[in-house]
Amino acid sequence: MPLTHQQFVDDIMLFGEPTVKEVRQLKRILDLFAEASGLEINREKSCIFIFNTVEQVKTHLIRLLGFKRGELPTKYLGNLLDSTSKKMKNWQGVLDKLRNKVANWAFRVLNIAGRIVLAKSVLQAIPIYPLSIMAAPLGVCAKIREIIRTFIWGGTDQKKKWALVSWNQITKRKENGGLGLRDPEILNRVLGAKLWWHWLREGKDLWKVIWKTKYNMPDSTVEILRQRDTTKGSAIWDLACQNRDLVEKHTFWETRGGEEANFWEDKWQQKERMSRVQGLQQIRDRIEGDRICVRDYWKANDPEGSWRVWTDLTEWDRELSQDH
User: Which of 60, 136, 190, 253 could form a disulfide with 261 if both were Cys (CB 3.0 to 4.6 A apart)?
Assistant: First the structure.
């Protein structure tokens, strides 16, 4: 699949081969766009990234296009594009933004209701994007939690105040007696699970195709769900993989005819997998291997009955033991 451009928010990324011919053609396209629309490209905010090319060619291509030279890791939407999310430098910008916001409000007379509104609408919104693209270290979540909690109770970096209500209580839903604030660690996990869920859903979006190809994942959603081990990859991929258990915990199979769901390994009964139920492992080991679907464990239904009748596994195991 040829990739020529990508757009996100108000930015556009153009892709091409690092050749003089291609760069001249790209410059011609940008000049035509400027002439037709009256919009000039901001060369101060634009960068060119060139990979796997000798230095002399890089210098010549940059001179032709007139953009600044970009180097990785670089920042995009305020976040450092790095191969790992565990480095504190990837989160320092977020923490600095939170502290600066709190410092700007330090001289305002705010009651606790006003502080809660600002905490929910501003402070909790700042880390949303980085929390949705990479797993935050526990230390970073603790610092975000501390900044918000200190602000709510009227403290400062220099002078702490006692919290009158525990953090666990104020992060509960309002109907459960809390204030509806979101804990950064839980939010990070939920956003990762949401990413995994969107990837599992049907669709031919480019990012889904790239993930399946890059990480050698099956085409079938069913096979992806059954695949227990995934390889390490980019920060956003690792975030999704680390929280796939949240998706699997709250999803289950529609049994229907019972031909697809695996009796032992799929969560078809809205409970734990049958293979993990104590007392059934030995029975499973003695049952013939070709009986794997849910349908294989139904008795022949009574024509006049409306309910499926299940095979008694204990009785079946006893019969198998006698045969052997």
Answer: 253
